[in-house]
Amino acid sequence: MSEPMKIDRELLGQAVGRLRQSGIDSFDVDEAIRQVIAAAVEVFGLSGAGLMIIDSDEVLRNVAATDPGGELLESIQEEIGEGPCVDSLYLDTVVTTVDASNDPRWPTLGERLRPHAIGGVLGVPVRLAGGAVAALNVYQDRPHEWDQSDVESLSAFGRILETVLATAVLANRQDELVQQLQTALDNRVEIERAVGLLMGRYDLDTVAAFNRLRRQARSERRRVVEVARDLLGQPRS
Amino acid sequence: MSTSADSVGHQIARVVEALRDTLGADDVGVMLVDGEGRLRTLGSAGEAGQLLEQAQEEQRDGPGFEVLRTGRTLVVDDVARSPWAKWIDLPAGVRAVLAVPIVVDDIATGNVNVISATARSWSDDDRERAEAAAGAVASLLQVAAAAGAPNAARNAIEVLGGVSGDGDGSDR
What does the DSSP 8-state code read for residue A101? Predict the structure, then answer.
C-alpha cells in the first residue's frame, strides 16, 4: 500500500510567499473554478463536469461546465429541481448513479437525458461553514459503476473548490458568485429551519421540502428567505 | 464551523496521489521553488519519489530542474537511456519519469514528478492528465498566495470550510 504524502509546510509557506512577492495577490474566482473542474475531468478521464451553487435565493444555479454535456446536465437539473446533483447539494452527501438516464429516483431527469450521451453521474457536495453550498458534478457518457476510490479522489477536487470559495468569501470579493454565496450563508439558518418545519408538517424528505419552499417563493414572487421567515413566524426584515 | 478542514498542503498531496493512482504509477513527488529561488522537495508519496527528489536536490540537476528551466513537460521513458544516466546517481525504483511544470500566472513555481519503477512509454493521455493535475496544484497555490499565506487559506477553510466525511454515496 502506498504511503500518504508528507508535506514540508515550511517550504510551502516560502513558495507561497515568493508568489506573493512576485505580485500574485488575487485570483479570478471563475477561472480558478474552471481550471479545477477541468483538471478533475482530465485527471480521471471523465466525459465532463460542472459546478452548481445555491444562490442568494437558495435556488440552484449552474455556474461552470467543461462541455456541452455538462452544461446540459446542470441546466436540466436547475430547471426541474431534480437529479443527483440536486440531491448531493440539498442532502449534503455524495450521490452516485450508474445511469442518470434510467434511474427511478429521478424520472423526469431521465426522460430529458435519454436522447443525450449522459450515463454515470457522481455529485460531490462543496461545503462552506458546515453545510453544502455547491455541488461538483461529474459524468461519463455511458453507464458507469463508481467505486470508493472514485468517490475519494473526486472529493479531493471538491475540497479544492472549498478552498477557492472560502478564500474568496473571506476576502469579501465583489464577484457576483461570491456575493451570492455570502448571502446564501447569511440566510442558511432560517431556510434550513423552515425546511425542517415543512418536513415535519407534511412528512416530506429534505429535497421535497426545499422544492416546496422554492415553489411557494416563486409563485408568490418573493425571496425564499422571506417565505422561510413567515413560516417560522418571524418578522420580515 | 469546520473542525477537520484540509490544509492546502494536504489538498496538493491528495491531488497528486490521485494522479499516481489513475496513471498506475509507482510513486509521485512535488518540488517547489523556495524563498531563495532553490528547487526543493515539497513531498513525495513513497521512497522512490523521496530518493529521486533528494538526489536532484543534492546534485542540483535532474528532470525537475530541466522542467523548471524550460517550462515544458519532460517525458523520460527510460532513465537508463537518458542524459541523466551518465552523471546523476538516480536511485533504484526510478526507471521512468514524467515531470510536469507547476506554473502560477506565468511564474515557474515547481514541478510534479510521476515515477515508474520500470521503463514505460508515457502516452499523450498520461501527459495530459499529469499537466491537468499540475494545473490544479497551481490554482491552489495561487489561491493561497492571494489569501496571504497557506495558513491564511487554511484559516479560511477552517472558518468557512466544509465538514469532512466524504465517502457516503448512494449507488444504483
Answer: G
**Could you say which residues from 150 to 179 on chain A have a Cβ atom under 8 Å away from some Cβ of chain B?**
151-153, 155-160, 162-167, 169-171
Check if A11 contacts B (Cβ < 8 Å): yes
Cell numbers 493561497 correspond to B144
C-beta separation of B30 from B18 below 8 A: no
> Please, are residues A15 and B39 in contact by the beta-carbon 8 Å criterion?
no
Using CB atoms, which residue from A6, A95, A127 is nearest to B161? A127
Q: What cell was used for A199?
A: 418536513
For the beta sheet containing B27-33, the strands, ordered from the edge strand earlier in sequence to the opposite edge, are B39-44, B27-33, B107-116, B96-104, B74-76
Which candidate, B16, B79, B100, places its Cα nearest to that of A7?
B16
A3: CB partners within 8 A, 6+ apart: B45, B46
Among left, alpha and beta (phi > 0; psi -120 to 50; other), residue B167 is: left
- CB-based contact (8 Å) between A127 and chain B? yes
Kindly report the nearest CA distance between residue A220 and chain B, in angstroms. Answer: 32
Partners of A64 in beta bridges: A51
Least Cα distance to B49 among B83, B13, B97 occurs for: B97
Q: Which residues pair with B97 in a beta bridge?
A: B76, B115
Contact A159 B8 (CB under 8 A): no
Q: Which residues pair with B104 in a beta bridge?
A: B107
In this prediction the pTM is 0.84
Are A29 and A178 in contact by the 8 Å Cβ rule? The answer is yes
Chain B residues touching residue A26 (CB < 8 angstroms): 146
Q: What is the ipTM of this complex?
A: 0.85
Give me the residues paired with residue A131 across strands. A128
Task: Using a CB–CB cutoff of 8 Å, tell me whether A95 touches chain B.
Answer: yes
* Residue range B124-155, pLDDT digits in tens: 999 999 999 999 999 999 988 888 755 655 56
pLDDT tens profile A19-34: 988 888 788 888 999 9
